[in-house]
Amino acid sequence: MPLLFLLRLIFSLLSWAVLAAAGYLIWSWWQGDLVVAPDGLARRVRDEDWRLWAGLALLAWSFLGKWLVVPLVAKPDTRRTRPDRVAGQIVKSPGGGELHVEVSGPIDGPPIILTHGWGLDSTIWFYARHDLARRFRVITWDLAGLGKSRRGSSGKIDLSRFADDLAAILDLTGQRPAVLVGHSIGGMTIQTLARDHPRLFADKVRGVALLNTTYTNPLRTMVFSRLFQALRRPLLEPLLHLTIWLQPVAWLSAWQSYLSGLAHLANRFGFGRFVTRSQLEHTTLLATRNAPAVQARGNLAMFRWDATGALEGLQTPVLVIGGEVDIITKLEASREIARSAPEARLQMVDGVNHMGFLERANLYTAAIESFAESVQPESVASQRIETPAVLGAHESS
């Protein structure tokens, strides 16, 4: 998302500043002062050892800082998330390239397709995949250019292409209708699918769950939206194009920021008060190892995207979940999506930000599970187990 891109860039520059300060202090200590002794010989005197120690401390921060930063800004884990994968398969993308797909859960379980947010990959569904796979056939996939998916030499990055890819993933379910779940750009992809391929929702889609997403250019539904819309052309777009042109430098900078822990501080802005250490580490690792140029192209594509009204004629049930303190896609965006869809209901989760599906995974997963059961009752009747109550969430129609 554009705001997180800008924050990562700012903290990346700060990380370079820390490294530069370390180098300067060590160099200035080494240079010392030239002092002429009584014998007429000039000697280099290094008596400001604080420069050496300060420089070494900053150097250590530059490459080991994440081990200090993460425990300071996130809570201990009661259940760790990890970038684990299961055996995958390749699906040819209609737009060129290859899509990496992983399937978990009982072979006869009702299908659920999970589409992740931008800059991440399908491993971010660690909690949801493990929990939902007890009863459902869970399909996760990497968006083109991210994770293990390849966009192809001529494959472009835009929401219509992602929607076409999602339609191809839907074919994996055969004749069994699926529940589509999307976080952030994943939710935008599902809305694009409804706009571009509405007929699929008649027989291939049983329900839709949209998590912390928007219906239009994210610059319009984020905090300080007017400011960022004004900065779009003079600042944001040039920075994104510069990232594409200078990808090797951008990638090196991203990894250096990751090691220093400053990338974790940038990503911390996407979480609320419940974030744990493994959740912050998992998110930051994925945002670092995915190609900066691909991420920049995706952000540029979002600036040109709009699906206002895409759900207005949709008769498919829709669950919209928004975070109370989401600054990336504000709760008002979730309310507008729920208002526009005839069969929608809105659920707000207290105290969570854009990555709410991680920091309150139990609430989000329980809501998705309950929703999927309600729209696929005959499919899960034989696998019914007690579902935990969704505490701390508010629901409205």
TrEMBL record:
AB hydrolase-1 domain residues: 110-360
Top-level division of the source organism's lineage: Bacteria
Transmembrane parts of this sequence: 52-74
InterPro entries linked: AB_hydrolase_1, AB_hydrolase_fold, Carboxylesterase_BioH
Family annotation (Pfam families): Abhydrolase_1 (PF00561)
Cross-referenced Gene3D superfamilies: alpha/beta hydrolase (3.40.50.1820)
UniProt protein name: Pimeloyl-ACP methyl ester carboxylesterase
Species per Swiss-Prot/TrEMBL record: Caulobacter rhizosphaerae
